[in-house]
Amino acid sequence: MANYLQQRIEGGQRIEDNTLACIADVIMAVDHHLDGFEHNRPVSKQALDVGQQSLSHLLAA
Q: Which tens digits make up the pLDDT trace of 22-43?
């Protein structure tokens, strides 16, 4: 994610709103997953699915 953002910024490319939304989804999914591990509770599959779909969208761009 850091490399993706760095390349966009260094290339002077504008980061579109839908791309920022995908980045937020991925960060949310990772945070939710880590929080579940930290508090020893199950992680929602839906959150992980949203994060995976958004990550796939970013990688395809």
A: 999 999 999 998 998 889 888 7
For residues 8 and 15, the answer to whether their CB atoms sit within 8 Å is: yes
Overall pTM surpassing 0.70 (yes/no):
yes
Q: How deeply is 22 buried, as exposed, middle or buried, from its count of CB atoms within 10 A (0-12, 13-18, 19+)?
A: buried
Angle between helices 45-60 and 17-38 (to 10 degrees): 140
- Going from N- to C-terminal start, the domains of the chain cover 15-60
CA distance 35 to 44: 11
